[in-house]
Specification:
about 400 residues; Rossmann fold; about 50% helix; about 10% strand; globular
């Protein structure tokens, strides 16, 4: 076929009638057909987006979500219920087909968890993301600053989420972001106009647009923005944000508020029903404002829940009962070297007592176990021993006073 006789194999236009004619081995296609084909593909992708979401997302009923959480997390029943309902409603909202007749728009419910260190805030978010099969990004609020200052911009949160989703934009836009240490960006002073609080209130102001839902230009590789850089547009409207923090000292604000309501003898009697060992259960949004969070960010984190402090019974259960329990992990580690690992109840109780004594929390249980088992894990793979039994005297010997002091310093 002569060059001037070339034509599009789809629409039949001659080469002079086209702006561009791409030639193949046995067929040709013009620029107009390429544009039409691209439009068809884009429309088809848009129509099947909801179907793809429902096929990939594993959404279960709130009770089923809680049952799954129970296999990994001990206690915290109230928080599990709150989280299960909030997550279920959020993703149910995403899976709901859009209707022009229904003008009711369901807004998302971001979550804020308050609890002491080591009570399982991060584990809660990880377990929910694992159940739903959605990408999860865990970020630390302590490194965030206002744009232009030393530290990370707020947009870097979404960069982490993109990385967790392997840069699949659609998956990232329905993922979960866990912002840890949210209490560390509390306002430093009562009057915001005195100084520029670039790592406190400034970060809270930057988070507002992300939490509520907007389109953000995100640097694909993180770092600072610059004019010549390519950006990825991320819509945060369907991203679930979970914030967590210890809020150390917020009990004083709770106590002050509760005492302010106490007037007369009858009120003093009602105070006897307050649980002084777990004041966080009485937390309300006003306490977060008194601690230093601005009202705007509290309003964008409408679901408020708390983590109960871990008592002896709960810590003991954490060691052995969950699906991914600490002791079960060590049993598997020793089994890889054909070593049968056992530990007595007295030794387990001793580990729990030390964790409570030095306020190490659930995270400290692992530190204590490492200190006790390290020598055995170092020597036994080479000695050929087939049994390793940990007793209370052995645990006491391994946890020398120097070791305890080191663990206390780390906590």
């Amino acid at each position: 076929m002569a060059k001037e006789n070339l034509e599009c194999s789809f629409c039949g236009r001659k080469k002079p009638e086209t702006n561009l004619l791409i030639a193949g081995l046995d067929a040709h296609i013009c620029d107009r057909c390429i544009e039409q084909a691209h439009g068809i593909v884009a429309e088809e992708s848009k129509q099947t987006k909801t179907n793809d979401l429902s096929s990939e997302l594993v959404l279960k009923k709130p009770q089923e979500i809680k049952e799954f959480l129970d296999t990994f997390i001990i206690g915290q029943d109230r928080t599990k219920k709150v989280m299960s309902v909030a997550v279920y409603n959020h993703y149910k909202r995403l899976l709901q087909p859009s209707s022009k007749e229904d003008d009711i728009e369901i807004q998302k419910s971001n979550i804020i968890m308050v609890g002491q260190t080591g009570t399982g805030k991060t584990l809660m978010a990880k377990t929910i993301a694992k159940l739903l099969n959605v990408p999860l990004a865990i970020v630390d609020a302590t490194v965030l600053t206002e744009a232009g200052y030393v530290g990370e911009d707020v947009e870097s949160i979404l960069t982490r989420l993109l990385q967790a989703a392997d840069y699949n934009l659609e998956k990232a836009e329905r993922g979960i972001v866990f912002i840890d240490e949210i209490d560390k960006i509390a306002r430093k002073g009562d009057n915001p106009s005195i100084t520029r609080d670039v790592s406190g209130e400034g970060v809270q102001q930057g988070l507002l647009k992300l939490l509520e839902g907007t389109v953000v230009n995100v640097p694909p590789k993180g770092g600072r923005k610059h004019p010549d850089q390519k950006f990825i547009e991320v819509n945060t409207e369907n991203i679930l944000f979970i914030a967590g923090g210890a809020f150390d000292g917020i009990e004083r604000a709770i106590t002050k508020r509760l005492n302010m309501q106490a007037v007369g003898y009858s009120a003093s009697k009602s105070d006897s029903f307050l649980d002084d060992s777990n004041l966080l259960q009485y937390i309300i949004p006003r306490d977060l404002k008194d601690f230093g969070l601005i009202p705007e960010i509290i309003g964008r984190l409408p679901v408020l829940t708390h983590m109960n402090p871990l008592d002896k019974k709960t810590l003991r259960a954490i060691l052995t009962e969950p699906k991914n329990a600490i002791i079960k992990q060590y049993e598997k580690l020793f089994a890889m070297d054909d070593i049968t690992f056992t530990i007595t109840d007295q030794a387990l109780d001793y580990i729990v007592e030390k964790a409570i004594e030095y306020k190490l929390g659930a995270r400290g249980l692992r530190s204590l176990c490492e200190a006790i088992f390290t020598d055995a894990m170092f020597e036994m793979p080479s000695t050929g021993d087939e049994n390793f039994k940990v007793t209370k005297p052995y645990a006491e010997e391994m946890l020398s006073h120097d070791t305890i002091k080191k663990l206390k310093a780390v906590s």
